[in-house]
Amino acid sequence: MVFKKMLSAFGVGGPSVDTVLTNPNTRPGLTLEGQVNLLGGDAPANIEQVVVGLVTRVEIEGHDTEYAGIMEFHRLPVSGPLQLAPKQQLAIPFQLPVPWETPITDVYGQRLRGMTMGLRTELAIARAVDKGDLDQVNVHPLPVHERILEAFQQLGFRFKHADLERGHIRGTQQTLPFYQEIEFFASPQYAGTINEVELTFVTSPHGLEVILECDKRGGFLTPGHDAFGHYRVSHAEADRADWAQVVDGWLRETTSRYGSLRAQGFGGHGHGHGRGRGVGMGGMVAGAALGVAGGMIAGEMIEDAVEGDFAEDWGFEE
Question: Which residues contact 75 (CB under 8 A, 6 or more apart)?
Fold first, then answer.
């Protein structure tokens, strides 16, 4: 789907901008291609810069509060200074590299509930900046992402929700100022030990780090708590024979670190929307110092992307 908008950047009679993506579907490590179409207004305009940037919605945890903000996490100037004559049409092609850590928004062609991603075009004239044109972007998983997500499905886990949390997971090679949490309800075979699982990918050109947070069910004399696992996988391992067995091994190893599965049960406090990681991770998550490219865009929100029906075989719940 291509969103076409002609927006007047600086009031009636000013220049307008319309960005068209060749294909709004992409994957981490690939590129987004398109062109920025400028149309001159009633008078000549000296344009200082044209920039495209990826923006998404991120959960922010403050002092006893949590709120969502829009964060630009990757940007590319596509044009320097230029003069636009009245009614002049100008097309500026671009290729925007998609960061390897860009969160996944779509699986099997279906939007993950909770995810929003867009390409925003900025037009700067005389120190005024218009951020009006926004195009939806769909980020699909890489093969190794798909195999791991399929393994959770094969093991009977049901997708619950996905979101982005501001912060940094210590001990990882994370470079973006946020991380994605893909949350699942535990399958029946794990229901006696686990309530929910949160899955995080930290992806690089060489492979990915997989972080698991298992919400462990409490026993008769043992309180519930979260258990964490950290695993590394190369892209070349995507065609490994039995990913369900691999993920099952990860889960069993993660949940048994505080005692055997039979000797100790696991957690029943159930935090929603990934809130538990900021606290439950203990020392693992540190607040990220945000640079210019990762700054919060105050007072601006992206409308929720249209969410289609979820794939039945994934057990997605509305």
Answer: 51, 52, 53, 54, 293
